[in-house]
Amino acid sequence: MGIPFLLLLCLPCPAVASARIPAVIVFGDSTVDTGNNNQISTVLKSNFRPYGRDFAGGRPTGRFCNGRLAPDFISEALGLPPLVPAYLDPEYSIKDFARGVCFASAGTGLDNATSDVLVSLLCSGRNQQDNLSVIPLWKEVEYFKEYHRRLRRYAGQAQAKYIIHEAVYIVSIGTNDFLENYFLLVTGRYRQFTVEEYEDFLIDRAEEFLRAIYHLGARKISFTSLGAIGCLPLERTTNALAGGGCNEEYNKAARDFNVKLQALIRRLCATLPGFRLRYAPVYDGLLRIIANPSSYGIENVIAGCCATGLFEMGYLCNQWNDLTCPDANRYIFWDAFHPTEKINWIMAEQTLKTSLAEFI
Ligand SMILES: *[C@@H]1O[C@H](CO)[C@@H](O)[C@H](O)[C@H]1NC(C)=O
Ligand SMILES: *[C@@H]1O[C@H](CO)[C@@H](O)[C@H](O)[C@H]1NC(C)=O
User: Fold this and answer.
1) What is this structure's pTM?
2) Ligand 1 centre and the CA of 66: distance in Å?
3) Ligand 2 atom 2: residue of nearest CA
4) Between 110 and which of 97, 205, 216, 218 could a Cys-Cys bridge form, CB atoms 3.0 to 4.6 Å apart?
5) Strands 24-28 and 276-280: what pairing?
6) C-alpha to C-alpha distance for 34 and 170, rounded to whole angstroms
7) Alpha carbons 15 and 326: distance in angstroms, whole number
8) Which residues fall in a coiled-coil region (predicted)?
9) pLDDT tens, 195-216?
10) What residues contact 139, with CB distance under 8 A and at least 6 apart?
11) Which ligand is nearest to the CA of 108?
């Protein structure tokens, strides 16, 4: 198993070393957070073992994975560094960020209320936001502005403009709005909106975000669609009364959101000159693997590798669990909420062939 997969990993790596892409810039949630949450006082962390078990040196980095995330693979395939550094990581400087930077934060969403879910859960509304919140999307945009200023000081006005304009942007966000906020019934959004109305609300938030980064100079953007969010192990577990299958209500919300997202993308491309916003499909890809795991060398599509795989993530997925599987490459999911490195690699390859294809 190990050897064929290594071959698979290495063959496409040299890919297209493109001089045209100066940097990879990342916004979003835990699917793409390369370590920002390590630097804030949230409980949503993964900078301890067995996270990072299959990372270089077996090092936990704050990635919610056994290894690398899709933006890391994409960066490498574009001839850029094999890791996209987290903006808040003090080990890196603007010199590194000029070639790639990640503003993402695990637990965040398009909806401001999503980044405060833990505040709602643990403090019953008391205002301790600076303590427990993860980084809301508007603040990721604030960091992007600060980055632009630092880049101008470091590289000069013209070069900074070139980097911002020619970089590839990867956006991956939205899962938490449904799973950690709306359907979890903790913030009141479920009383305020029907699911359809909430989808529209999130699309409006996505539009605000996309217009904001457009006006700040971003042009080449890959917006990752929602996956089959009802098939995450945690959602199967909470669906146990219904037989433990995928939660079809959640999957339907993801599909409907994706349809609306595609309409938004068409509309923005038609109205914002030079905006090259592209849709990265992942929903069908994940279901294909779930339907046909053996052709990917995968044996378990239901539970995560870490601990029982049924509900553990973050601090519950830790080195004191004897049940953690020996070979994550046989699993789709690393913990109860996040895919393994192998799946991230497959998703990165698909993104390079779809939304990013025309940029490279
Ligand atoms: C989200 O929060 C930011 C910062 O407070 C604010 O500017 C923005 O209007 C909020 N968005 C919504 C939809 O409330
Ligand atoms: C949270 O905030 C309170 C009051 O502002 C402070 O006393 C406490 O140390 C903070 N806790 C963390 C983990 O930052």
Assistant:
1) 0.91
2) 34
3) 131
4) 205
5) unpaired
6) 13
7) 30
8) none
9) 999 999 999 999 999 999 999 9
10) none
11) 1
| Spans of all domains in the chain | 5-298+341-359
CATH pick for 5-298+341-359 out of 3.40.960, 3.30.70, 3.30.450, 3.40.50: 3.40.50
Unique residue bearing structure tokens 């502005």: 145
Residue 129 CB less than 6 A away from ligand 2: no
Nearest to 101 by CA among 18, 35, 166: 35
Catalytically active residues are 30, 335, 338
- Tokens representing residue 291 in the block: 């339907």
* pLDDT at residue number 332: 98
131 in ligand 2 pocket by Cβ < 6 Å? yes
Nearest CA to ligand 2 atom 11: 131
Residue carrying structure tokens 């799946």: 343
Residue type, 345: W
Q: Which atom of ligand 1 is nearest to the CA of 205?
A: 13
Ligand 1 pocket at CB < 6 A = 112, 138
Closest residue by CA, ligand 1 atom 14: 112
Ligand nearest to the CA of 122: 2
The structure tokens 């090092």 sit at 59
Q: Three-class SS of residue 211? A: helix
How far away, in angstroms, is 133 Cα from ligand 1 center?
A: 15
